[in-house]
Amino acid sequence: MSHIDAAQIREREASLPAMARDRPFGIFLVLSAAVSWIAAGILVLERLALYKNPNYITSCDFNPWVSCGTVMKSAQAELLGFPNPLLGIVGFGLVITIGMALLAGARFARWFWIGIQLGITVAMVFIIWLWSQALYEINALCLYCMIVWAMMIPMFLFTTARNIIHSVIPAPAALRRFAAEWTWVMVIVMLIITAATIVLRFPGAFFGA
Question: How wide is the angle at C-alpha 65 spanned by C-alphas 136 and 149, nearest 5°?
């Protein structure tokens, strides 16, 4: 790469919103995926303890509504025949690696970003399904699962916005401007809506029976 090309890339990067730049986006991926990876790791350890002792009380069994043990013993917690958090260990580990690569100066081809988008979209759909099952089928919450939910919402929205802004996802100029200016608002709104659904579904967990 020539000095002129490098200068043009730096100039273009500087004109982009923070989350569309490689370094800030890389930092975001590393931090959000690391938090999710730790939460998934704790869930795996707790599930192993339950395998050893079915009467084991998990570290986040606080009350009838917030009970990781209840959630872990449900069929939904092992959708593919093994504990769901194992998927998180692998998936979030990959996201951390991608974030570190961006921090090291790696530049990925469009097909690679399409793959990242597909992977994070599938993960988000899975998280939405788990959220609906926890609220309306299992009727219990898992603290560590909610941490993953809270990380996946900005991870999905900022990744999608980044790919729209960089034309990985074809979009008209108006949508690119919207992604650049309003994604952070969408993140806040979605987090508030998610929290509201939890509070409204389990008021006893927050306000007493």
Answer: 65
Count the domains in the chain.
1
Residue 26 domain-assigned (yes or no): yes
What's the Cα-to-Cα distance from 190 to each of 128, 181, 185, rounded to whole Å?
12, 16, 9
What predicted TM-score, i.e. pTM, was given to this entire model? 0.89
Instruction: Catalogue the E-assigned strands of the chain.
Output: none
Q: Residues of 136-151 as b/e, b for ≥16 C-beta within 10 angstroms?
A: eebbbbbbbbbbbbbb
**CATH number of the domain enclosing 111:** 1.20.1440.130
Q: How many helices (H) and strands (E) does the chain have?
A: 8, 0
User: Per the domain annotation, does 1 fall within a domain?
Assistant: no
Q: How much is the pLDDT for 128? A: 95
In a domain, 10, yes or no: no
pLDDT tens per residue, range 128-172: 999 999 999 989 989 999 999 999 999 999 999 999 999 999 999
The answer as to whether 170 is a domain residue is yes
Q: What angle do CA 131, 137, 142 make, to 5 degrees?
A: 50
Q: Which range marks the domain in which residue 134 is found?
A: 19-207
